[in-house]
Amino acid sequence: MKRQQHSPSPGMVPGAAPEEDLIDPSFSAAVIGWQQQHGRHVLPWQNTRDAYLIWLSEIMLQQTQVAAVLGYYARFLERFPTLRDLAAAPVEDVMAQWSGLGYYTRARNLHKCAQRVVAEYDGVFPVEQALLADLPGIGRSTAAAITAFANGTRAAILDGNVKRVFARSFGIAAYPGEKKVEEALWRRAEALLPEQGIESYTQGLMDLGATLCTRSSPDCGRCPLQARCVALATDRVKDLPVRKPKKASPEKHATMLVLMDRGQVLLQQRPDSGIWGGLLSLPELDGHTLAEDGNIAPADHAALSMAVARFGELESHERLSPITHVFTHYKLHIAPYRVTLARRLDAVGEAGYVWYDGARIAEAPLPAPIKKLLLELCGDAGAAQSRMAF
DNA sequence: AAGCCGGGGGA
DNA sequence: TCCCCAGGCTT
């Protein structure tokens, strides 16, 4: 294996020297060869070293496909032929030209960036990746693309397309959004940079990800990396890159009262909108506080006493087994308390409260987990009525 | 109707 | 510093 000399590229983060074992000149050679033979060479922002033209294209191409950008790019340059024209224009004019491209923060940043380059760099974009990345709307990857195309600087890009190409080529089976994984990808991106031909290589990586190594149904048969693609060799193309792990649905807690008296159970009509809209349910104990660990502190006698005050005088309470109900978007942990009144006040009044006949629970319009709980309480084995300790 | 995405900005 | 979201688009 041939040893390579390489000095850290200008925009590289300090201490991020690419490991030698990641270096592989055959990778960039394959990409460059493919790009020169099959890549795009006549896009309006190619074949120029004008950083203004390159920068504008890179910003427009963020989250937007080439076909959509072409028309906007031409019109934008007609209206703002130079960086100074753009910097001097009212932001409203910039927005007007951007109108329809979407993601309008890009346009505001574009305008701010133009003004800063004029003010701080006398209208000439800096060459150094880190200086470029300090400008509004330009991050590490876009900075690398600009300086590579405008100055031929060896700088690594790492956008979504490149992450996909790397994940498949090298069989990286970890989520690229994770910090450590992304850092590793950046090290690899730096290590794979060619000594010569950074423009073809950078363009080639972008084109590869955009045209062959697409997210779904990639065209592996035409890929210059097929012979060395780990994902292809192990039949994992469709599984890489690893998709974003869906975040655990949030967990919510509710304390509910099972208030039984004279063969009746107290229910409450739920609001039409929201969860269990329009159904009856158990009254909830509000004002419950989440403990540090996300669990509900158990309700105490005083809190329950307050909660039931409008219905009567609390005699006793019993903590029932908690229920977990899983919705599509969150988990609800229900802590039910069975509560007995010493003296029942008849006027439950407003707020949709209703004393519901215990024998008719099975027909009540209740959410499934609540109905299940109440049916179990009403007597396990059908001996229902007689054993109901109402 | 869910995933994706470079960069900005809030925690 | 880390994490989450934007806003339009694709699948």
Automatic annotation (TrEMBL):
CDD domains, per the entry: ENDO3c, NUDIX_DNA_Glycosylase_C-MutY
Species per Swiss-Prot/TrEMBL record: Rugamonas rubra
GO molecular function, one term: adenine/guanine mispair binding
Cross-referenced InterPro entries: A/G_AdeGlyc_MutY (IPR005760), DNA_glycosylase (IPR011257), Endonuclease-III-like_CS2 (IPR004036), HhH-GPD_domain (IPR003265), HhH_base_excis_C (IPR023170), MIG/MutY (IPR044298), MutY_C (IPR029119), NUDIX_hydrolase-like_dom_sf (IPR015797)
Protein name according to UniProt: Adenine DNA glycosylase
Alphabetical list of Pfam families matching this protein: HhH-GPD, NUDIX_4
Function: Adenine glycosylase active on G-A mispairs. MutY also corrects error-prone DNA synthesis past GO lesions which are due to the oxidatively damaged form of guanine: 7,8-dihydro-8-oxoguanine (8-oxo-dGTP).
Alphabetized SMART domains for the sequence: ENDO3c
Claim: 4Fe-4S is one of the keywords in the record: yes
Cofactor: [4Fe-4S] cluster
Catalytic activity: Hydrolyzes free adenine bases from 7,8-dihydro-8-oxoguanine:adenine mismatched double-stranded DNA, leaving an apurinic site
